[in-house]
Design goal:
Elements lengths: L1 H6 L8 H20 L6 H17 L2 H8 L7 H4 L11 H14 L3 H15 L6 H9 L2 H8 L4 H11 L6 H13 L9 H37 L1
Helix pairs in contact: 2-3, 2-4, 4-6, 9-10, 11-12
């Protein structure tokens, strides 16, 4: 509950979801071991399996890439803590980053370029003394703005990704649309059918907004051409 409340804000915290879940499971292990006298850790394993199953539904490869692009997790202050390692040494994080970069950049040359820039970021190549010091002091979004010029393509991706919030606003909008579709008089709709109708409704609204913006752009361009 504390983890959900922490991330359900209007502030960007996408990069902290994976790390927060990891720390949450470790704290639960300490609490359960202190209260349960179970040498085989049966209860602990059961609780951990439930938490891991639910957390896997909450996290995606984008969360893993955001975690790997957070400078704080490479700082000496964080790595000095017990059992802390850089994100690139986590096999799950590395696999998630590779999967995300492949999806975002299907062009092989661009993917290779992003991989090289990511390697330079992890190895701190070309980073100044102030950039290394700011890894722990500044938030990830600000750090990339100030110190990401050595990896311009990765900087653009990191700023976009680390600007995302992890709130439930999008889910609440989805539930609001679902309430209009699954009414008392239409309560016999199958779940799959209702989900398809919600999907169509949301995408139609998105297309309408896109066409409206494009229409305004055409009007502005038309006014400029007549003015010229």
């Amino acid at each position: 509950m504390s983890m959900i409340c922490y991330t359900d804000t209007d502030n960007p915290c996408l990069e902290e979801v994976y790390d927060g879940i990891d720390l949450m499971i470790e704290e639960m292990k300490v609490i359960i071991n202190a209260k349960e006298q179970d040498p085989e850790e049966t209860f602990l394993k059961e609780v951990q399996s439930i938490c891991v199953e639910q957390c896997n539904k909450m996290t995606t490869s984008l969360h893993l890439l955001a975690f790997a692009l957070t400078p704080e997790f490479y700082s000496d202050e964080v790595l000095a803590k017990p059992s802390r390692v850089p994100p690139y040494r986590d096999s799950e994080v590395s696999e998630g980053c590779r999967t995300t970069l492949t999806k975002l950049f299907p062009d092989f040359e661009m993917e290779d370029l992003m991989s090289i820039e990511f390697l330079n970021f992890v190895a701190s190549n070309g980073q100044s003394v102030s950039a290394l010091r700011d890894k722990y002091k500044k938030d990830a979004h600000s750090w990339w703005y100030l110190n990401g010029h050595t990896s311009p393509n990765l900087q653009t991706l990191a700023i976009k990704l680390l600007s995302q919030v992890a709130s439930s606003s999008s889910s609440e909008r989805n539930w609001s649309t679902y309430s209009f579709i699954h009414l008392v008089k239409r309560n016999q709709l199958a779940a799959s059918k209702a989900e398809e109708l919600v999907y169509v409704h949301l995408n139609l609204r998105l297309l309408t907004q896109t066409k409206r913006v494009q229409g305004w752009e055409h009007k502005v361009l038309g006014c400029r051409s007549r003015a010229n």
